[in-house]
Amino acid sequence: MKWDVSVDANGWERDQYDDLAPLYIIYEREDGSHAGSGRLMPTTGRTMIGEHFSHLTDGVVIQSPTIWEITRLCISPSVKSRREAMTVTSSLLLAGIDVGLRFGLEFYVGVFDEPMLRVYKGLDFTPDVMGKSGEERRAICAGLWPCTQEVRDNMARKVEEHAQIAEAAQVVEFAVGA
Q: Strands, DSSP E only, in the chain?
């Protein structure tokens, strides 16, 4: 999405929202390397969708203690196979739902590239698209995802061939950014 980030001496990408103490979900390989991550933030404070993508919600302000924003969902460039990319993506999304269930969340909101809709549908985690800007593969969308046990169970069944994903996502370690 061409978002402006800075990269520190450790190679970590950061933007202004990393200073707001978000929660991070990180997929770490057995060797300790990063394979993917996502950032979760309450919508009761500053959010990317509110400050930079409100045109995708027709200016509607999304603020609720039971709705959090998910941003910076990314897969490491070191992930080379489609299978590993799906494993990482589904693990991050399952872990995000588990976090939401623990915190009593009802929804996640986020901005994503339109081609990701196919991935979300394949995982039975299709958002309600609130708005869209752009055309075809270059379009970005704002979506609202329910965060329920039923959604989690359905997604876990979709990735049943990766049973360890569903089990590992239940053991979420929290890392608060600063």
A: 6-7, 13-14, 23-28, 34-42, 67-75, 107-113, 128-133, 140-146, 175-176
